[in-house]
Amino acid sequence: MSALGRPGGAHESPSLKTITLAFTGASGLPFGLRLLDCLVAAQCRVYLVYSSAAQVVAKQECALSIPAQPREAERMFRERSGAAEGQIRVFAREDWNAPVASGSNPADAMVVCPCSMGTLGAIAHGLADNLIERAADVMLKERRPLVLVPRETPLSTIHLANMLALAQAGAVILPPSPGFYTHPSSIADLVDFVVARILDQLQVPHSLVPRWAGDRDGPPIGTSA
Ligand SMILES: Cc1cc2nc3c(=O)[nH]c(=O)nc-3n(C[C@H](O)[C@H](O)[C@H](O)COP(=O)(O)O)c2cc1C
Questions:
Q1: 12: number of CA atoms within 13 Å, CB side?
Q2: What are the residue ranges spanned by the domains of the chain?
Q3: Sign of CA dihedral 38, 43, 46, 52
Q4: Residues whose beta carbon lies within 6 Å of some atom of ligand 1
Q5: Right CATH number for 18-202 from 3.90.226.10, 3.30.70.270, 3.40.50.1100, 3.40.50.1950?
Q6: What is the rounded (10 degree) CA torsion for 186, 177, 195, 73?
Q7: pLDDT at position 215, please?
Q8: Among the atoms of ligand 1, which is closest to the Cα of residue 120?
């Protein structure tokens, strides 16, 4: 597994960020879990929300039991990622008192990773029927960064039309499609490729994957350090 991104260097952002992170019931939770670890390592505050389908997927593909109670989930994720007390806050699916439910107190950015076609469609149509959908709706209406990491294959015209509508509304559609020009040698490398692109969108500093034609402060891909 590559080293976690650390704050510092040429890409350092001037202030600490608060990121809303949502896990939904698409396959690809390893991307979301790795993203959470990287956000914690980069000293971001994370508001975490997950769907009940995400709990099913977590068990299936990561052998991870995500507690239904936000307090218990908070403790579990804090211990797992080594977060500081209060760095990760978990909100229930219908906690309309959560800060992310209101345009008066939105996070700096939001990521839905992985994003199911169901949640994607609901966001595209402004349903706002649970906290994930509402928080995403708030990001769009407040013109704040919203990154969606949709996972399905193949895609129907309905999925594609929903993605187009979301892109036109200002969301970033970031499919978990790793490149192979970095010569990945493990699943962890493939995961990091995608997580690096998400962190770039959030302007959160990291050193997960070498940049094409060289890091601003490091050697190019394919050359030794
Ligand atoms: C193991 C497993 C994998 C799934 N993978 C996907 C997927 O890749 N994409 C998708 O859109 N739905 C997938 N689903 C179906 C969604 O979980 C289902 O549509 C659910 O209603 C989504 O709810 P949510 O958007 O509230 O999380 C999967 C379900 C399971 C149990």
A1: 9
A2: 18-202
A3: positive
A4: 24-27, 51, 53-54, 56-57, 60, 116-119, 151-152
A5: 3.40.50.1950
A6: -90
A7: 60
A8: 25
* pLDDT for res 106: 87
Distance from the alpha carbon of residue 205 to the mean position of ligand 1, in angstroms: 30
Query: Count of CB atoms within 10 A of residue 198's CB?
Result: 26
Q: Quote the radius of gyration of the chain (alpha carbons, Å).
A: 17
Probe target for ligand 1 pocket from 29, 55, 57, with the most ligand atoms within 8 Å of CB: 57
Size (the chain), residues:
225
Report the candidate in 51, 35, 44, 58 with the shortest Cα–Cα distance to residue 193: 35
Instruction: List pLDDT tens digits, range 117-137.
Output: 999 999 999 999 999 999 999
Classified as helix, coil or strand, 114 is strand
Report the pLDDT value the prediction gives residue 211, as an integer from 0 to 100: 87
Q: For residue 219, how many other CB atoms are within 10 A of its CB? A: 11
Class of residue 170 by CB neighbours under 10 A (exposed 0-12, middle 13-18, buried 19+): middle
Atom nearest to 61 CA in ligand 1: 1
Residue minimizing CA distance to atom 1 of ligand 1 = 57
Going from the Cα of 80 to the center of ligand 1, the distance in angstroms, rounded, reads 24
pLDDT at residue number 6:
37
- Shortest-distance atom of ligand 1 to CA 117: 11
Q: Which residues of the chain have pLDDT under 50?
A: 1-14, 224-225
